[in-house]
């Protein structure tokens, strides 16, 4: 028993140690495991990054791999970054460009200290506009080299970075405008269709109560018409409220709709209680119309209906459905860390 326990502990320790060694131990600023660069390209890019570290202490590392296996590129990049301590301790001024050849994915992982400069939006724009267009033509070195040049330029030239961020903000405002227009049209369309269905159904509902109270519509056939009119009226109400709720949730942090739907699922009787004022208002309106008319007495008929009244009243308002490093060139991590900031992309 003791031997089995020792074996189990040994295996667990081995697996833990193996898990800790799953990422490359970086020795250069450029590690081309996927072999997408020529030797000259590796040398030039590595020397550029050596010079960048010597001038600024920032560490920018490029790693290419064949595939990710069972990890996401975000998890792999963060693990590789932190295990190698890219960036200087206390400054966390590291950057990692991770390229996965067969997964067709790339990520820029940003250390804590550089997140105010290379923000997620900046990293995403570099990937989308600089890297991916080159990667689609299998110009991998050109895409990565251009992205590296951009990041070096932004960290060395605050004005260039500010202009780049300004362009991003302008683009986001433009996209937001189109989004608002689309949401507005979407909401108006649904509200219009829903409003038509609601008022048509509710008008029929009022006439059903009015016909029942005057004996011109039998209680039993009136009940069937009541259910039908209520269904289409409530369906219209859903069409009105749903898009308004979606728009509200998009522009606020609260999620009242999801909360209330969950309440209705947990306690469906809440919905039934809501029918009381729904029908109650219709009854009140029907009685007011009878009172103002002053020519009809209140009476009930259980089954028999006035066919002429039904045909005249509900043919026009009836319920109808609708559809709708150094100079040596080697890399040595300075103990920097990343909390997962950056951006990813695929092509």
UniProtKB/TrEMBL annotation:
Residues 30-152 form the TPM domain. The keyword RNA-binding does not apply. Residues 316-347 are annotated as: Disordered. The keyword Nucleus does not apply. Residues 326-347 have a biased composition (Gly residues). The chain crosses the membrane at residues 181-202, 223-250, 270-290. Keywords: Membrane, Signal, Transmembrane, Transmembrane helix. Residues 316-325 have a biased composition (Low complexity). Residues 1-19 form the signal peptide. This is Conserved hypothetical membrane protein.
């Amino acid at each position: 028993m003791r031997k089995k326990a020792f074996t189990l502990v040994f295996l667990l320790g081995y697996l833990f140690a193996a898990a800790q060694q799953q990422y490359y131990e970086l020795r250069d600023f450029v590690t081309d495991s996927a072999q997408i660069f020529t030797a000259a390209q590796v040398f030039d890019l590595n020397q550029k990054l050596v010079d960048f570290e010597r001038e600024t202490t920032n560490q920018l590392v490029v790693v290419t791999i064949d595939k990710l296996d069972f990890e996401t590129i975000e998890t792999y990049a963060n693990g590789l970054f932190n295990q190698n301590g890219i960036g200087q301790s206390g400054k966390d001024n590291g950057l990692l460009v991770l390229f996965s050849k067969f997964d067709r994915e790339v990520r820029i992982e940003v250390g804590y200290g550089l997140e105010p400069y290379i923000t997620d939006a900046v990293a995403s724009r570099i990937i989308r506009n600089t890297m991916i267009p080159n990667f689609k033509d299998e110009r991998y070195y050109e895409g990565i080299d251009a992205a590296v040049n951009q990041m070096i330029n932004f960290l060395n030239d605050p004005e260039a970075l500010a202009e780049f961020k300004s362009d991003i903000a302008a683009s986001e405002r433009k996209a937001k405008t189109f989004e608002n227009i689309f949401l507005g049209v979407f909401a108006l369309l649904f509200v219009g269709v829903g409003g038509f269905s609601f008022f048509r159904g509710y008008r029929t509902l009022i006439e059903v109560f009015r016909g029942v109270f005057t004996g011109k519509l039998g209680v039993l056939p009136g009940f069937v018409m009541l259910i039908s009119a209520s269904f289409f009226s409530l369906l219209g109400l859903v069409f009105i409220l749903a898009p308004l709720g979606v728009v509200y949730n998009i522009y606020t942090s609260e999620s009242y709709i999801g909360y209330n739907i969950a309440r209705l699922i947990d306690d469906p009787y809440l919905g039934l209680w809501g029918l009381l004022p729904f029908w109650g208002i219709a009854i009140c309106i029907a009685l007011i119309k009878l009172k103002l008319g002053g020519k009809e007495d209140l009476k009930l008929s259980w089954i028999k209906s006035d066919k002429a009244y039904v045909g005249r009243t509900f043919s026009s308002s009836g319920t109808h459905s609708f559809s709708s490093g150094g100079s040596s060139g080697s890399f040595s991590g300075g103990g920097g860390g990343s909390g997962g900031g950056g951006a990813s992309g695929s092509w």
